[in-house]
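Reopening this ticket.

The earlier resolution said the output was attached, but the attachment link was broken on my side. Pasting everything inline this time so it's all in one place.
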Amino acid sequence: MGFFDVFKKESHCASCHVVKPKDQLNDIDFSRRWAEPGGEKALLCRECMMARVTRGIKSFSGQAVVVWPMKKYGGYHYYSFSEMPGLEYEHDVVQKLRTLLEPKGRSCQCQKVAVFTWCSPEIFSNDPMGGEAHLSSAGAQYVCADCLCQALEEKIKEQDISFREINVPVGENGLWTPMEC
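Inline output:
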């Protein structure tokens, strides 16, 4: 243990109670910033966070465009298409994103029904707050909930991401994207 290790702030996972440095824990928000009554907000290790996110994804009844998470952004937020214009997304950007939704009834590569569109961050020129959508750069793949969870977990591990804030898709169709928080 080095001298500076004494100053690291540690906390425990609210689910499994493992103690880790706070920067290795994820702040998951099922309340969508307190907009959903009774929604849970908790600090979780990666394994417990993925278990909760997986449950949230599998219980989502709509469709979503999902942009890969990026380490440089501390948040991963879901916005319904109807709320996006109030969040400074131009109407034409929202309309472009809607066109990426999987046509109902199409199958994922595993033959289950695809309800998610998994996209590269290049859809926003690697800047989700830039306000422009480049559909030709999206590299869109249509995936089911199980395949989305697997792809999401792979990206999170590959980039060693810990989120300061993450919420999952709820309610109506929308966009799940990396964000500054």
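Reporter confirms the inline version is readable. The mean pLDDT is 84. The chain has one domain: 10-179.
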